[in-house]
Design brief:
Blueprint lengths: L24 H26 L2 H15 L4 H17 L1 H17 L4 H7 L4 H15 L7 E8 L2 E6 L5 E5 L4 H13 L3 E5 L5 H17 L7 E3 L3 H7 L8 E4 L3 H9 L14 E4 L5 H13 L10 E4 L4 H14 L4 E3 L1 H4 L7 E3 L9
Parallel strand pairs: 3-4, 3-6, 4-5, 7-8, 9-10
Antiparallel strand pairs: 1-2
Helix pairs in contact: 1-4, 3-6, 3-8, 4-8, 6-7, 7-8, 11-12
């Protein structure tokens, strides 16, 4: 029971106890995911009640001031610690992720979105490797990019510095939160994250891992905070005195809504066609590997290749090998008339005009 005091009304919080017999590994993970989902959501709701959007922004601003002066060694130590925490919490992360995947299946979300939700197996390992990779990058802060002598004794320098408090809105992919956090930590910024509701459990556990890693090395855990609801984002859009940049990673409708409803600078994007260009001097084997990787390694991501552009003088030397590699990977190729005449494959069809400008 929370609140109320003497004679006052409070909130009753109860936990039912039940017994059941589990006969398979799937039932174990399903039960674990269910329990995690209930408790995880309860904990998240309590935190949201305690912290207003204004308080979140104030904490972010205070954390940003400390991150701006953090040494490269300390930031790298935080990234290394985050990797260790992620590894130690692997079971919790997998359980949270399973709960999100069950939710997505029940809501009949698209297969593409459900694939993006997964953060287990190779994707989990890559998430940790990416964090380690960011630590190896040269410190981006304090680099002189330009120096000009305006007059005797008066010199103008352009130097890299942290932005401050960055709000990033992203969808579906839980590991993106860790990647974004790593980049913000390395560059000395504070971060407010808003992930999609379909990945709420995964995001909660992953962000807590990041915060734990920051705190372990003496950096403020509020350098990374999770904003959980759309209502909080709407309120956050008015916090231009605390937030320095908003980056919406989603569809055009999201980017337009954010841009139209805030005075905070927005780093947005539009639809884009990802193309691979093959030059006549390219190594054929390397070209085949790169083209297949760009398309088939992870089809559901937004930067998977849509268009293959082959230099005309390379058609006779490169195209057949590339098409065979794509076909072996299960890719359907839609070719223009000139290319189609040179291709002998069952996985080829004639391209229409719309195929060249469809993301």
């Amino acid at each position: 029971r929370q609140g109320g005091g003497s004679g006052g009304e409070g909130t009753e919080v109860g936990l039912g106890i039940f017994f059941c017999s589990l006969h398979s590994a799937f039932e174990h993970i399903t039960l674990y995911s269910f329990i995690f989902s209930v408790i995880g959501w309860l904990a998240m709701e309590v935190e949201q009640e305690v912290l207003s959007v204004l308080e979140i922004c104030k904490r972010g601003r205070a954390a940003a001031q400390r991150m701006q002066t953090a040494s490269n060694e300390l930031k790298n130590a935080a990234l290394a610690e985050i990797g260790k925490v992620l590894e130690s919490r692997k079971g919790d992360i997998e359980a949270a992720n399973a709960a999100d995947k069950i939710y997505a299946a029940e809501k009949k979300l698209s297969n593409t979105l459900q694939k993006r939700l997964d953060v287990t197996g190779p994707k989990f390992d890559q998430m940790i490797l990416n964090t380690e990779g960011v630590a190896k990058i040269e410190d981006p802060v304090g680099k002189v990019k330009m120096a000009t002598e305006l007059s005797d004794g008066l010199e103008l320098y352009r130097m890299t510095c942290p932005i401050g408090v960055i709000c990033v809105i992203f969808e579906a992919r839980p590991e993106a939160g860790v990647q974004i956090s790593s980049l913000c930590i390395k560059s000395g910024n504070a971060l407010l994250l808003k992930g999609g509701k379909e990945a709420a459990n995964s995001n909660e556990v992953l962000v807590n891992c990041v915060r734990e890693g920051l705190e372990a090395v003496g950096l403020p855990k509020d350098a990374v905070q999770l904003v959980s609801t759309r209502e909080q984002i709407n309120e956050l859009l008015s916090m231009d005195q605390y937030v320095d940049l908003i980056i919406p990673r989603g569809g055009n409708a999201l980017v337009k809504y954010i841009t139209d409803n805030t005075r905070v600078p927005v780093l947005g994007h539009a639809d884009g066609i990802c193309a691979v260009y093959v030059d006549k001097d390219a190594d054929v084997e390397k070209a085949c590997n790169l083209v297949v990787d760009s398309k088939a390694q992870y089809v559901s991501v937004c930067n998977a290749a849509e268009t293959l552009l082959v230099q005309r003088s390379a058609l006779s030397t490169h195209l057949a090998a590339i098409v065979k590699s794509l076909s072996d990977a299960g890719v359907l190729i839609k070719a223009d008339p000139e290319s189609l005449a040179l291709i002998d494959s069952k996985n080829v069809a004639a391209a229409g005009a719309e195929d060249f400008d469809t993301e």
